[in-house]
Each structure stands twice: as C-alpha cells, then as structure tokens.
Amino acid sequence: MKKLILSLTLAIAMVSCTKNEDDNSTITAEEATVNAKMDIANDDVSDIVEQEESSTYSNTLNGRTIENTSTALPPCATITRVPAFGTPITPGTLVTKTIDFGTTPCVLNNGNTVSGKIIITFTFQPTAPSHTINYTFDNFRHNAILFVGSKTFTKIMTVETATSPSHPIVTMNMDITATFPNGNSYTRVGQRIREIIEGFGTPVFTDNRYRITGSWTTTFPNTTVQTSTITTPLIVKMSCILVNKPLLVSGVITIVRNNNVATLDYGNGDCDNIAVFTLNGIPNTIIIGN
To answer: N- or C-end of the chain: fewer Cβ atoms within 10 A?
Structure first.
C-alpha cells in the first residue's frame, strides 16, 4: 500500500558501502527499492483477494458487500464467478472468482495501477473454523511489474473471550516471481500473518487496525538471497487514509544479508510519513508514502 520514495533511496545510498559488481554483500538502494515495490504489490493483492472471498459469504448471490476497503475495486475491474452470480451457493461448493483488470493499466483507489487477472479458488464452507483461499496470476501486472506464481491464504476465526470478540487471523503463504520492466526477476518465498485487532464486524473500514508478523526471503538476479523478518509487529491503521497518510504506523522490519543488518522502523503509531532506516547501526530519518 505504501511506496518508499526518493528519500529512502537516497538514505540507503548514503549509508551503503561502495561495491563493485562482484560484491554481493551490501544491501543496496536499488534492491531496497525492489523489496518495497514487491511489498506494495503484496499488500494490494492480499487485500483484493481477502475482500473477494469475504464478499461471497456476505452475499452469496451477487458477491457484494456493504463494507468498503482501501482497495475497493474501481469500475475498470470486472468480476466473474463459477457458479455464476445469481446462483445460490451451497456448502461444499468449489468457488472460482476471476478479477479481470483488463489489458491497459487500471487505477486502484490508492493510485497503484494493475492489469491482467487474479484468479481465486476456495470451497464455500460458512460454518468451517478455517478457510483456505488459493490464487494465481494471469498476465498480472502491478505498477508495470509482472507477477507469476501462487499464494495461499488460511483464515481462521479466533474463539471469543471475555476481553476479545471472535475475529479472523489470516496466514499468507507466498511463492512468487516478480519481473520488472528492465527484465530483472526476483523470487520471494515466505509468510505473513495478519490479524485484525480492532474494527471487525463494523460497516466501515476506517476503524480497522491490523497486526502483521512474518518473514520472507528474496532471491535477486545475481542469486543473492536476502532475508526480511518483522521483528516488531507491524500495525496498520486504516483511519490514516482519511488524512492522506500511510497506513503502516508502527513496527520494525529487520533485513539481513551476509553480515549486513538493516532495520526499518515505522514509528510510534501516529499517522505520519516518517520512518527510520538504519544500516549497520547508522540511523537515517526517511520519508515514506505514495
């Protein structure tokens, strides 16, 4: 949902070691930008898929929901379903939904562009304690980056307690390859776990807050592997969209590559566009956002 803009690139460049083409030990500005763009795509696609699966349960006939999301689909997206819309769905039915963004860039409400198709499949089980959603890409591009591969969601509902109502926790497993316009391809394998901690069940999305944990590896064209781990849970606050600020308001991602360690700290929970990028112990304040 967020892009690390020029100031992040400059900050990384200032603290990165100068290297020659054979030195793959350093976390470079270009590679940090690649990771950020893949994160943005991952968040947008995950929101779209979760929204489309949930809407099927909200309205089994036409798959529409009254709850908006930050990535509510624009008019340039069309959705088809098997069984077809208007057909009642019974428990145990395999559902396939195709979200077609067309062949030219389709602009999402957050400003990112997409084209191609996302195809999701799941078994309709309204009373099941766990739901699994699979999805694949068909010539899908996010901000001109081509994505190939598959991801799987597993969504469970927690048990209601005296202090916490039942709410979903979504585990996202990913194994995807992203090819950038310059021809460079990057493979990402890993897992993200997202839990809604406030706002579930209300008819608006702006009171939602999410906690995200997980880790993943990214393999670069030169076969270098970099590991990213959420070492302090990331917090997403949807109300920040009302003041046109980034939604990720706190938490820390730690990036490890050989003996180099970098962290990205998103702050104290305020709706702002400030984060601190630290490489090998040297901190730099950076600007983040769309």
So the answer is: C
